[in-house]
From TrEMBL:
CDD domains: DHQS
Protein name, UniProt field: 3-dehydroquinate synthase
EC number: 4.2.3.4
Domain 3-dehydroquinate synthase C-terminal: 176-319
Gene3D superfamilies: 3.40.50.1970, Dehydroquinate synthase-like - alpha domain
InterPro entries membership: Dehydroquinate_synthase, DHQ_synth_AroB, DHQ_synth_fam, DHQS/DOIS_N, DHQS_C
One Gene Ontology cellular component: cytoplasm
One Gene Ontology term of the molecular function aspect: 3-dehydroquinate synthase activity
Domain 3-dehydroquinate synthase N-terminal positions: 62-174
Keywords assigned: Cobalt, Lyase, Metal-binding, NAD, Nucleotide-binding, Zinc
Origin: domain of life: Bacteria
Entry function: Catalyzes the conversion of 3-deoxy-D-arabino-heptulosonate 7-phosphate (DAHP) to dehydroquinate (DHQ).
Transmembrane segments: none
Length: 355
């Protein structure tokens, strides 16, 4: 597949990615190489990755426990300490091999250690391939609040190898599909329509769908790297989705949701809000709702869950001057940003989701 040129870095695919990586290692005089992994990617992905590396550099592996609950500043401190103890310097290269937690956290660690060292992302989950690896957002959670601490800083390169997906469980694959569906809903109606019959998609199609999803996100981010305007469109489904994800993460009586599972709920809720505001019609809404619900199981949200979820909205990073801002779809394939939504309408959206 053809490489994609982002604003300051290339995104390579499959075999071409390893060729580009080894050329990069040859052409740049790095002092040493650190690979950040979590416990899952250390077991399932690192053994596949290491044989492709052609370098005389000393390679050190830094592992941390997998899971969103470990995407925090405490984990960063531990990794910064290890980097220091093992002699990392300004000429160090860090490769972040893993899903969105690894690339988000690893990018933040790299961007802040000694005021910034070079890093490369190698996403290994569908979600991280189509979302976390593109756009330069790096960061960690603050308690249960998603991505409150971070920087926008681009990697030297992104390498996407879809063979890593063979190690993923089905729920992780579905989680990534949520972001791909979002890209179609906000930007490309024809792309969205390719997902209406998932049974017709084979692995070759998936490679092409991933490439298109990455291209869509890159096209949006390239127009607005610092999220002042059109990049806000990528937040469709995330205003409520992140609040739901945070609430389920902090509540010991709830089963923690994967990112895509929460965003799927958020897209249904925010599509209902789009319907109520007459930005989409009933047929479009019903198609969105039935399509997403055919992929993702319903999640039980009780009446007494909704108020705590609403209270978490105030921490959303898109808020301006204390006002909650939504990105809503205006017909499938188009978006309208900076939309204010009253709580009564959000409540109706939750009631519709549960019905």
């Amino acid at each position: 597949m053809q490489s994609i040129q982002a604003s300051n870095y290339p995104i390579h695919f499959n075999e071409k990615g390893y060729e580009a990586l080894n050329l990069h290692l040859k052409e740049n005089k790095y002092s040493n190489l650190f690979i950040i992994v979590d416990t899952n990617t250390n077991e399932f992905c690192l053994p596949k990755f290491l044989p492709f590396i052609e370098t005389d550099l000393t390679i050190e592996i830094i592992e941390f426990e997998n899971g969103e609950e470990n995407k925090n500043i405490e984990t960063c401190v531990q990794i910064w300490n290890v980097l220091t103890e093992l002699g990392a310097d300004r000429k160090t290269l860090i490769i972040n091999l893993g899903g969105g937690v690894v690339t988000d956290l690893g990018g933040f660690v790299s961007s802040t250690f000694k005021r910034g060292v070079a890093f490369i992302h190698i996403p290994t989950t569908l979600l991280s391939m189509v979302d976390a690896s593109v756009g330069g957002k790096n960061g960690v959670d603050l308690g249960n609040l998603k991505n409150q601490i971070g920087v926008i800083n681009t990697p030297n390169m992104v390498l996407i190898d879809t063979e890593y997906l063979e190690t993923l469980p089905q729920n992780e694959m579905r989680s990534g599909l949520a972001e791909m569906l979002k890209h179609g809903l906000i930007y490309d109606k024809a792309y969205w329509e390719q997902f209406l019959d998932l049974k017709a998609i084979d692995f070759v199609d998936l490679d092409e769908l991933i490439h298109r999803s990455v291209a869509i996100k890159n096209e949006i981010v390239s127009q607005d790297p610092t999220e002042k305007h059109i990049r806000k469109s990528l937040n469709f489904g995330h205003t409520l989705g992140h609040a739901i994800e945070s609430y389920f993460l902090e509540n010991e009586n709830k089963t923690t949701l994967l990112h895509g599972e929460a965003i799927a709920i958020g897209m249904i809720l925010e599509s209902y809000i789009s319907l109520d505001k007459e930005l989409i019609n009933a047929d479009e809404y019903n198609l969105i709702k039935t399509t997403i619900k055919s992929i993702f199981e319903d999640v039980t949200i009780l009446d007494n869950d909704i108020q705590p979820i609403l209270e978490l909205l105030i921490h959303d990073k898109k808020n301006e001057y204390g006002t909650i801002q939504f990105a809503l779809i205006e017909g499938i394939g188009n978006i309208k940003i900076n939309q204010s939504v009253e709580n009564e309408l959000i409540l109706r959206a939750f009631n519709d989701y549960k019905s």
